[in-house]
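Thread amino acids onto this structure.
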């Protein structure tokens, strides 16, 4: 028997062999989220994509009974170093003190239109 339960927000479109969220060992593991809205649209700016990415994470958190305050670790992938400051400003609006531990990595993402991807771990309340 395994201690794993998949979590997916209602109406989520899953385009690969993964779970948007997975509960195990008292934690919620959130797969990499990008700035694509539920209707499939993708913002053109880092600000638009960062906000939608974090909103997408929020939908998974809520589906698991969590909130942004429960996130303990995040890994952020951005495609240009100049995106760090605008992303960080938006990120700060969602995550209260004490903020999660975090790494931010400069990376090439699968779709060239994507500017940001975030994966996270939250402690279940």
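Threaded sequence (125 positions):
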């Amino acid at each position: 028997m395994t201690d794993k339960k998949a979590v997916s927000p209602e109406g989520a479109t899953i385009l690969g062999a993964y779970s948007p969220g997975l509960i195990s060992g008292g934690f919620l593991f959130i797969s990499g989220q990008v700035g694509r809205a539920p209707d499939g649209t993708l913002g053109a700016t880092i600000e638009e994509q960062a906000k939608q990415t974090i909103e997408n994470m929020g939908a998974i958190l809520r589906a698991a009974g969590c909130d942004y305050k429960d996130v303990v670790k995040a890994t952020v992938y951005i495609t240009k170093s100049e995106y760090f400051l605008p992303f960080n400003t938006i990120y700060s609006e969602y995550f209260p003190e004490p903020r999660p531990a975090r790494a931010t990595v400069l990376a090439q993402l699968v779709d060239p239109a994507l500017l940001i991807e975030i994966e996270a771990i939250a402690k279940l309340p």
